[in-house]
Amino acid sequence: MKVLGIETSCDDTSVALYDGDGGVVENLVSSQADLHGVFGGVVPELASRAHLVNLLPLVDLLLRRRELRLRDLDGIAVTAGPGLLGALLVGLSTAKALARAAELPLVGIHHIEGHILANALTAELVLPAVVLVVSGGHSELVYMPEIGRYERLGGTVDDAAGEAFDKSAKLLGLPYPGGPHIDRLAAGGDPTRFELPRPLIHDERLIFSFSGLKTAVRLTVEQLPRPLSDRDVADVCRGVQDAIVDVLARRLAQAARRHHVRAVYLAGGVAANGGLRERVAADAAARGWHFVPPARVYCTDNAAMIAYAGHCHLAAGRRDGLDLDSFARAPLASWR
Ligand SMILES: Nc1ncnc2c1ncn2[C@@H]1O[C@H](COP(=O)(O)OP(=O)(O)OP(=O)(O)O)[C@@H](O)[C@H]1O
Ligand SMILES: [Mg+2]
């Protein structure tokens, strides 16, 4: 079964083709990072307009590269939410029009289910599992007994982990999005120089809080001489990364112990973080949990994960009508 995936929930326009026989055969991503970079964050209206310009040419390119016509496909999967409504609407209306024109089944996908199932594109899933979903807009722990069943165990009470990375990076004068820059620079930083706070670390609940970290980073940076030296920036990056990774990994381990799972997984953009992958691998090895980090290309937004999720749902007989609507927010567990 060949499924076309479409993802436009934020600032990446992406289309992909998942083939039940061959796995992901195309995954095209047109990033808008340069467009939004000058503003230090995503500008929703600019994102929608860029999706409008880029989406159909990307679909066209994908079909040409594979020498396929729309009618050769078996279905279309599209991110219905959560995300920026205007951006989502571009993907959704395009998917509906293509499905209608070629008489193909259409299925809407919850973006976070896409991030979670991206793990299945790297290695066969071992279940039941606890997944730490850490991205630009989410930081949650999800219990997954089987594909399609998700229970939210807890999450952030304020900022998402990706936001904590990006806001800290901004305070250090690093480009947007800052997460990958902190990851790269932290590798050369001194882990003992800046001990940043680990909020709620002794709390029994499965919750995170990152807003205090941002203030601590600001106060730390304000005390350093200007202009910031490369050494100071690298050392602060190391402090930030170690603090975020420590709280995320501890909660993931806490959730995995409570739920007696066989495996732990990472999902979302922050799952690309080198420090987090290493720490979770070490914790999993010590506890006997199965863990394979998701391939980095499938961590940040991409349509391959949406095409794969669509393949699972279409194979299970699920279809959406042309009345499928986009949504800015809705919990994964209760959506539908
Ligand atoms: N190597 C890395 N280390 C830390 N953070 C990273 C890394 N790579 C990407 N990120 C962060 O991941 C986030 C983007 O992830 P993603 O594309 O999944 O988010 P989003 O789609 O904007 O949010 P959501 O999925 O919640 O709607 C950004 O905050 C970015 O800084
Ligand atoms: Mg995302």
Descriptive report:
Helix 2 runs parallel beside helix 3, helix 4 packs across helix 10 (304-315) and helix 5 (161-171) packs parallel to helix 7 (211-222). The protein has helices spanning 33-37, 44-65, 85-102, 111-117, 161-171, 179-186, 211-222, 230-259, 274-287, 304-315; strands at 2-7, 12-19, 23-31, 75-81, 106-110, 129-134, 139-146, 149-156, 207-208, 263-267. The strands form two sheets. It has a five-stranded mixed beta sheet with strand order 3-2-1-4-5, with helices on both faces. The protein has a five-stranded mixed beta sheet with strand order 9-8-7-6-10, with helices on both faces. The longest helix has 30 residues, at 230-259. Helices cover 41% and strands 19% of the residues. The chain is α/β, with parallel strands linked by helices. It contains ten helices and ten strands. Helix 3 (85-102) links the parallel strand 4 and strand 5. The model has no long low-confidence stretch (mean pLDDT 96). It starts with a strand and ends in a 21-residue tail after the last helix.
